[in-house]
Amino acid sequence: MYKGVLEAGCDEAGRGCLAGPVYAAAVILPPRIRLPLLDDSKKLKESIRDILRKQIEKKAIAWAVGICTEREIEKYNILNCSILAMQRAVLKLETKPDHLLIDGNRFNPFDLYKFTTVIKGDGKYRNIAAASILAKTHRDEYMKNLSLEHPDYGFEKHKGYGTAQHVRAIDEFGYLDCHRKTFILKKRK
What we know:
The protein has 6 helices and 5 strands, in the order ββαβααββααα. By secondary structure, it is α/β, with parallel strands linked by helices.
């Protein structure tokens, strides 16, 4: 966005889920990096996201992932936790950026970082798209591992989103500690 400025793109994944933490990533890409498949993570197949994750983690100047737990989401709400997870990711970067590009329209100033919010930024800026892929793939990996502990819930398929399969599992087996209690579904008749 700004020539000669070291920018980190930031995005989150899992904001609308019924279960699991919210993940965020911050990524600083080299100016002329070649990642021909790079796009908003929501537009890509899982297999392509997994390939891109490896490429981004190998070629980025710096990258980091931050999370907010289900209990933090209950305490601070999902919007604040999405922002906090992004801030945590930025603070973990090994290279300090000059400017942050944030996907969406909300962010809170911190540590004197300059930032710009960009609605649908994951489709407009490569470093935000890269952050969207890392946030999504790291969160998906967590949810797949969670499915090994709780195979009846299908986390490996729906990743904690409120699909019909997930809702049926909640109805049949009840809520787990990984469920966000503030996102609990109303009882259906």
